[in-house]
Design a protein that fits this description.
Layout: E1 3-6, E2 11-14, H1 21-28, E3 45-50, H2 60-69, E4 76-77, E5 87-91
Parallel strand pairs: 1-5
Antiparallel strand pairs: 1-2, 3-4, 3-5
The structure holds FE2/S2 (inorganic) cluster.
The site of FE2/S2 (inorganic) cluster (FES) has 12 residues, from loops.
Length: about 90
């Protein structure tokens, strides 16, 4: 199973392949903040120092929100991401 490291919490957990990153974070008590959970508010903006290629492809709503926020390349919205391999993530706020 993929390993997800929440750097803000110094916490590494195993996730099911295809698990939503929000569900994983919340189930494990990670401190990444969430708001709308629909890819609109931008609260869950994350950096992915390791494993960017192991997150599901970006879809239109997330792309639109990241663009409106002026997010940096490589930043993602955790509520819109599925785990597809090992990752290290941290809140971008
Ligand atoms: S919680 Fe609002 S965009 Fe993820």
């Amino acid at each position: 199973m993929p390993k997800v490291t929440f750097k803000d919490d110094d916490l590494t957990v195993e996730a099911e392949m295809g698990a939503n990153l929000r569900d994983t974070a919340q189930a494990e008590g990670a401190s990444i903040p969430f708001g709308c959970e629909q890819g609109i508010c931008g609260t869950c903006l994350i950096n992915i120092p390791v494993g960017e290629e192991n997150i599901s492809d970006i879809e239109d709503q997330e792309k639109e929100t990241l663009s409106a926020m002026g997010a940096e390349p490589g930043q993602r919205l955790a509520c819109q991401c599925q785990v597809e391999g090992d990752l290290e993530i941290e809140s971008a706020h």
